[in-house]
Amino acid sequence: MRTYLVTGGAGFIGSNYIHYMFRKYGDEIRIINVDLLTYAGNLENLKGIQDRANYTFVKADICDKEAISRIFAENDIDRVVHFAAESHVDRSIRNPEVFVQTNVLGTAVMLNCAKEAWELSDGSFKEGKKFLHVSTDEVYGSLPDNGASFFYETTPYDPHSPYSASKAGADMLVKSYMDTYHFPANITNCSNNYGPYQFPEKLIPLIINNALHGRKLPVYGDGRNVRDWLFVEDHAKAIDMVQEQGRLFETYNIGGHNEKRNIEIIHIILETLKEMLPDDDPRKALVTADLITYVEDRKGHDRRYAIAPDKIKAEIGWYPETMFKEGIRKTIQWFFENEAWMTNVTSGDYQKYYTEMYEK
């Protein structure tokens, strides 16, 4: 049975990845989920999985070398999928040090622990071991707003926020381990994800939740910043395919072919909510474009991101299967069916419950 160590598996993308892997492989794999359960880590994201015999949760900090080394010592880890990261740009602007600590130092600890566990006496590595570092398109900086250029794996790094700079630093560490030690790793850089379990400080769940409650819908600047949107299940599939079919030491860009301006995203969400809400649902009257409120632009706000996923398509055969119109309906339907999850997250009750549980 292959054993996966997933960091940040209680977060948005990590939990979706774990759900995907168990749907695909069932009892053929074992997953050890390591998460510190900070504000964005929520074990409610993994309900239905926690009782599986082939699933283990460990509350630990990826910066704690002793704790991470113990996990490697006590388990024969075959794959590491490293999601754990501070990821919200606005938070990085307010408190950059936390991002450097988790994203750079935490990645260094993960690399060192994996290297120590997998390295043989001759400097080579045990057969079949792989480390996948999950990163972001934000490390590439900003593209012109003319739709004519894209991010490729060869695009020079040009981060503009403390968040993207910390992820760029983590990427460089992984690259250095591949070059210096021939460490068996890959890097993936993805575009903006959306889908179930996304923490509601991010654009799409924030707009869905606020619109349903008749609250203001904040839009940075002129609302014309462009992002490429990737449905999270498509991302999970891509990560699995890179682990199993990707060439070692390579970087793969994972994009959704769904470029949209932020203001366009908001209008699509409002229109879709109107279509999906029953006529007798009182929330339908609350959903209106009058809620859109333009606010001061984010500092260092990149104008456009757009990934060209040509390499992963050509080498591995992955492509984004979910177009935005379908993906946003799936996402909204999930939020309709999981209103208690949203209530617990926005109230902070989930964090109190699990903090008390793991402090006992």
Automatic annotation (TrEMBL):
<keyword id="KW-0456">Lyase</keyword>
<dbReference type="InterPro" id="IPR036291">
    <property type="entry name" value="NAD(P)-bd_dom_sf"/>
</dbReference>
<protein>
    <recommendedName>
        <fullName>dTDP-glucose 4,6-dehydratase</fullName>
        <ecNumber>4.2.1.46</ecNumber>
    </recommendedName>
</protein>
<dbReference type="InterPro" id="IPR005888">
    <property type="entry name" value="dTDP_Gluc_deHydtase"/>
</dbReference>
<comment type="similarity">
    <text>Belongs to the NAD(P)-dependent epimerase/dehydratase family. dTDP-glucose dehydratase subfamily.</text>
</comment>
<dbReference type="InterPro" id="IPR016040">
    <property type="entry name" value="NAD(P)-bd_dom"/>
</dbReference>
<dbReference type="Pfam" id="PF16363">
    <property type="entry name" value="GDP_Man_Dehyd"/>
</dbReference>
<feature type="domain" description="NAD(P)-binding">
    <location>
        <begin position="5"/>
        <end position="331"/>
    </location>
</feature>
<keyword id="KW-0520">NAD</keyword>
<dbReference type="GO" id="GO:0009225">
    <property type="term" value="P:nucleotide-sugar metabolic process"/>
</dbReference>
<dbReference type="GO" id="GO:0008460">
    <property type="term" value="F:dTDP-glucose 4,6-dehydratase activity"/>
</dbReference>
